[in-house]
C-alpha cells in the first residue's frame, strides 16, 4: 500500500478505539436500599404536593351519550353518567339534566335534520379562573396504524377513483357501498373521513 492510499481506519486513540477507563458499580443491598430510601424521602413531598393540588381542582364530568333518546323535555342524567369533584364541602347539588330536540340544518342545495342536545347543570360554588371545557371521545383510535392508513391520497387530491381502484385498497372496509347488484365508490373513503367528530358547543353564562 502506498503512502498516498487513503484508509478508513480510525485514529489510534483511547477515545476512538474505545479504550477509555470505565467504572461499573456493583449493586448490593447495602448500596441499593439507602439509594431507594433517599430517593423516596426526596420525592414523597413532591408527590404529596401534586396530590393536594389535584384534590383542589373543581370538576364536573357529564356523559351525554344517551341524550339522543331523552326527548324534548329535560330529564335527569343517569347517576352513572356524571361525576363531580369539589375541594370543599358542597351542600345541595342539583343533578344535571339533558334533552334532545330536532334541528334542521341548511346546506347549499339540501337540508337535513339532526339532533340538538342541551345539557343543563349548576356549579354549586364559584370556580377560580381559568375554567376549561374539554370533551372526551371513547373508542376513537386515531393513533392506530389501520386508522391512520385508511385513506386514499389520490382521491383526496381530486383524482377520479373507481370501484376497482378502491376495492382491496387502504380504504377497506369503507371503500365501496353496495346497492342491490351495483357497487359505488365512497367519496371520501376510509375510516378517517367517516369518523370525523363535528360536535358544536355553546355556553350560556347567565341563562334565563
UniProtKB/TrEMBL annotation:
Transmembrane segments: 31-53
Subcellular location per the Swiss-Prot or TrEMBL entry: Membrane
InterPro entries: CDC50/LEM3_fam
Top-level taxonomic group: Eukaryota
Keywords for the protein's UniProt record, in alphabetical order: Membrane, Transmembrane, Transmembrane helix
Topology class, membrane: Multi-pass membrane protein
GO (cellular component) term, any one: plasma membrane
Entry's family note: Belongs to the CDC50/LEM3 family.
Protein name: Uncharacterized protein
Protein's organism: Linnemannia gamsii
Lineage: Eukaryota, Fungi, Fungi incertae sedis, Mucoromycota, Mortierellomycotina
Amino acid at each position: 500500500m502506498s503512502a498516498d492510499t487513503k484508509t478508513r481506519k480510525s485514529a489510534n486513540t483511547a477515545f476512538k478505539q474505545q479504550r477509555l477507563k470505565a467504572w461499573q458499580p456493583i449493586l448490593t443491598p447495602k448500596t441499593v436500599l439507602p439509594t431507594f430510601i433517599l430517593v423516596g424521602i426526596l420525592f414523597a413531598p413532591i408527590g404529596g404536593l401534586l396530590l393536594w393540588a389535584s384534590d383542589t381542582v373543581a370538576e364536573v364530568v357529564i356523559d351525554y351519550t344517551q341524550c339522543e333518546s331523552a326527548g324534548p323535555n329535560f330529564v335527569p342524567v343517569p347517576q352513572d353518567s356524571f361525576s363531580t369533584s369539589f375541594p370543599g364541602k358542597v351542600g345541595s347539588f342539583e343533578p344535571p339534566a339533558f334533552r334532545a330536540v330536532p334541528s334542521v340544518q341548511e346546506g347549499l342545495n339540501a337540508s337535513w335534520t339532526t339532533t340538538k342536545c342541551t345539557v343543563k347543570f349548576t356549579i354549586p360554588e364559584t370556580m377560580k379562573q381559568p375554567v376549561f371545557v374539554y370533551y372526551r371521545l371513547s373508542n376513537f383510535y386515531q393513533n392506530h396504524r389501520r386508522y391512520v392508513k385508511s385513506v386514499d391520497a389520490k382521491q383526496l387530491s381530486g383524482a377520479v377513483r373507481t370501484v376497482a381502484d378502491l376495492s382491496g385498497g387502504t380504504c377497506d372496509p369503507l371503500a365501496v357501498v353496495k346497492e342491490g347488484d351495483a357497487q359505488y365508490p365512497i367519496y371520501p373513503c376510509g375510516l378517517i373521513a367517516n369518523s370525523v367528530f363535528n360536535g358544536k358547543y355553546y355556553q350560556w353564562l347567565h341563562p334565563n
